[in-house]
Amino acid sequence: MSIQSGILQAMTRLAGDPITHAPITAEDADALARTLRALADRTRVLIVSALLHAPGGEMHGRDLQEKLGLRQPTASHHLRKLVRAGILEREQRGPYGYYRVVAGALAGLCHALGGEAEA
């Protein structure tokens, strides 16, 4: 299974019944844990927040790096983890990579935990 298909399956699982509704399977718990692990870092939370509040909902990787005061290797490491977890998507425009939060990624996580996502 490719990383991308694994991400798609994990995000689909998060959109199912919340953990408060009924006990979840080990597979669903793994999917939820992978997503939570990706967000369990201060820098990654700051990146997601910056993107959610950026004009147009996206930012160039270098702009994120400068805004958060990160070194390039550190920014790349965290952005890669968020993309692999299916929380961010990256679009290449010429030599530049632009990042945005995947539509519904945080709503799916909120739902999985038994909460209501903001509209």
Structural summary, described in words:
Strands 1-3-2 form a three-stranded antiparallel beta sheet. The model is unreliable at about 1-10 (pLDDT under 50). The relative contact order is 0.18. β2 and β3 (about 95-100) form a beta hairpin. It has helices at about 5-15, 25-40, 40-50, 60-70, 70-85, 105-110; strands spanning about 60, 90-95, 95-100. With about 120 residues, the chain is of the alpha+beta class. The chain has a single domain, classed as Winged helix-like DNA-binding domain superfamily/Winged helix DNA-binding domain (Arc Repressor Mutant, subunit A, Orthogonal Bundle), CATH 1.10.10. It contains six helices and three strands; from the N terminus they run αααβααββα. About 55% of the residues lie in helices and about 15% in strands.
